[in-house]
Amino acid sequence: MKYKITLLPGDGIGPEVVSAGVKLLKYVAEKFQISLNFSEELFGGCSYDKYGTPLSDKTLQTCYDSDAVLLGAVGGYKWEDLPHHLKPEAGLLKIRKSLGLFANLRPAKVFKSLADSSSLKREVVEGTDFIVFRELTGGIYFGEPRGFDDSKGWNTMVYLKEEIERIAHLAFKAAQRRKGNLLSVDKANVLEVSQFWRSVVSEVAKNYPDVKLSNMYVDNAAMQIVRNPKQFDVILTSNLFGDILSDIAGMITGSLGMLPSASLGSKYALYEPVHGSAPDIAGLGIANPIATISSISMMFKYSFGMDKASELIDEAIERALSEGYRTKDISMKADDKIVTTEKMADLIIECFEEIFNEQSLGVFTL
Ligand code: IPM
Ligand code: MN
To answer: What CATH number labels 111-254?
Structure first.
């Protein structure tokens, strides 16, 4: 198999974590005998500096011509005062919409060896393993009318039936492959758009009799994630609620530096670490590459259909951590072995190699 990958390293620590991730990506591709072709483009603040826009047509075209996009991070103090439509964040919304990336998958999995770095007690978080399916190209982020004048500001939360159906199908399918529980989160006690959301999701549920569907209001869900995160399997929700809930979910796992994401559409897919560009530590070589490496694991699973490679990457991360290796951001103990971005990626590659040999995978045929 041959795949075209577009790299958008972006700003701040983006280039460092992407280059560490790509090293692993190339290594795993070789092990599993797939061929990858890379293109690299500017995106975010660095693109603004060169072309006066966070997302140029050239970058977008390269994404259209690829099977998967790997994004580092965008933004930084330097571009904070730009007008709204020129900020790196505007580029992010535009790339999501242009590539039709309607489903944003954000897994919240607590690594055993990191359970103590959560702000919650180990007993509460250990064993947490759920995934948020956040609708990404609709809802209040994109609804019209929108605007503000001297006396008011307004946005519109609107969902078309098809927009709800397509992400619901993906979430139900994921629940089938997991523990069979899907929770749809809304605010149906107040918002009509949520009542509609709930009824469409219930209709879609009829196609998946093996999945148990439940519903929860978003305020309760926020509270439940902190109270007992182990109760969740798949959470399906809208753009704004998913933005908020995925940050809460992320924090219980200990470090934002660990969290991957996949944004999927019917044609394109983009993978990116959830963390930001961290301009304060950019260029120091100390950023955590694990979120990017986990995002690459998602790429193997969702873009290449290679579940085995994805599992091995996840196991390799777990093994490197269990051996005591840490980047600075996730170090808790004096005897942790603190390593650089690049070293962490190399260690994960070594662990991958070990696991690969232990399982005598030899040449893995697809
Ligand atoms: C995220 C971010 C973005 C969002 C911002 C930067 C536009 O918070 O990816 O969660 O709100 O979607
Ligand atoms: Mn967010």
So the answer is: 3.40.718.10
